[in-house]
Specification:
alpha+beta; 26% helix; 377 residues; single chain
């Protein structure tokens, strides 16, 4: 009987272990469970923050009403529009796709031709309304293409202004942005392109989307440009009424034959009509006001004697009420700019001493009233 008892005991133990193994969650299940738990914690923190804000007298933000769902006719229209742009922009371009872009100093890519007539058309597409915010009180139409190359999942996004004009607000193609653009290591210099031709191509792309005279310095102010990880990046802002604004134009071009477009974004549609032009203060008066406001409101009092005035100029900008309406000890406000807030200000800049973090302090002074409208540092 003893051998039989031992055999039954072992058999029961094996069955128990099998059941435990079967009941144990897989790696995928554990990952999903952790993701759900993290999301629950995140939502709980947001709710706690909102409750504290309400207790302090701030109103809980009210989300805008959801729009009517897009009709099938609308979805078909915008998908066709986006596919037409794909054919126009990339049909003749090949691409590289990163196998392991973060592999030390030796990233690897695989070369692919015919992507836009093969892999792209095997992918999926989603058409829906875009996001809504107080600075963008409208909803664009987003078209998102999902496709796969060499086991890498890529996206190509379009955003159209949903006003019936079919204007393109944004295009972004993963295949022609970091990290999928082949670049030389270790010097990171262009292989197939040069800056002059990239600038000309950027102006050509901008004109295709209705933005003309990109390099006319009376219409646009270059803010940042350069070559980084196989991509030419150009960022500009527009002039309105002869004054600089913060409404951006961004263009990325891949270092590949044909100079394919990686990104286009236009903030021109955000420019409010009838921006003010009244200027009462001159530059010296604006500087005097800024120095007075700096001494009164800037929170880092120990730095004030070490700041030196650098320059000031008239710009269109939204007030942020930093320093004059501080939400906490940092001096920064919790004010959220709204569409149409932009006004004409004197942007006064002061230089910090070396080794004190971001090198500039800006004080915004209303050009018409002389009031302080905020600042940054």
């Amino acid at each position: 009987m003893k051998p039989m008892f031992t055999f039954l005991t072992v058999a029961m133990l094996v069955c128990a272990l099998v059941n435990v193994a079967l009941a144990a969650p897989t790696d995928e299940q554990r990952h999903k469970q952790k993701k759900d738990e993290d999301l629950e914690k995140h939502l709980a923190l947001i709710e706690e923050f909102l409750e504290k804000a309400e207790a302090a007298g701030r109103k809980r933000p009210v989300p805008p009403p959801s729009p009517e769902p897009l009709t099938q006719r609308q979805k078909t229209h915008y998908e066709k529009l986006a596919r037409d742009w794909v054919r126009c922009l990339w049909l003749t371009n090949d691409c590289f796709v990163a196998k392991d872009p973060f592999k030390g100093y030796k990233p690897e890519w695989t070369y692919h031709s015919g992507v836009w007539t093969n892999e792209f058309f095997l992918g999926t597409v989603d058409v829906s309304y875009g996001s809504f915010s107080e600075t963008r009180p409208w909803r664009g139409i987003e078209v998102r293409f999902y496709f796969e190359i060499a086991n890498r999942h890529l996206r190509c996004n379009f955003e159209f202004w949903g006003d019936g004009s079919d204007n393109v607000l944004m295009v972004r193609n993963d295949a022609y942005n970091y990290s999928n653009v082949f670049y030389s290591v270790p010097d990171h210099k262009p292989i197939h392109t040069n800056e002059r031709e990239a600038r000309l191509k950027a102006a050509e792309y901008a004109a295709m989307f209705g933005v003309n005279n990109l390099w006319d310095e009376t219409e646009f102010e270059p803010r940042a440009f350069g070559f980084c990880y196989g991509v030419w990046e150009f960022s500009l802002t527009s002039y309105v009424n002869g004054y600089p604004t913060l409404f951006p134009i961004s263009i990325h071009i891949a270092d590949l034959p044909g100079y394919p477009l990686g990104l286009f974004y236009s903030g021109m549609y955000q420019i409010p009509p009838n921006l003010p032009t009244k200027v009462v203060l001159n530059a010296e008066e604006a500087k005097k006001n800024a120095i007075a406001y700096l001494k009164e409101y800037f929170p880092l009092k120990h730095l004030i004697p070490k700041l030196t005035f650098h320059s000031n100029r008239l710009e269109y900008m939204s007030p942020n009420y930093n320093y004059i309406r501080p939400a906490d000890d940092t001096g920064f406000s919790d004010y959220t700019p709204k569409y149409g807030d932009d006004t004409l200000i004197w942007n006064n800049t002061f230089k910090k001493p070396e080794g004190t973090g971001f090198p500039w302090v800006s004080i915004y002074v209303d050009a018409a009233t002389g009031d302080m409208l905020g600042g940054c540092d």
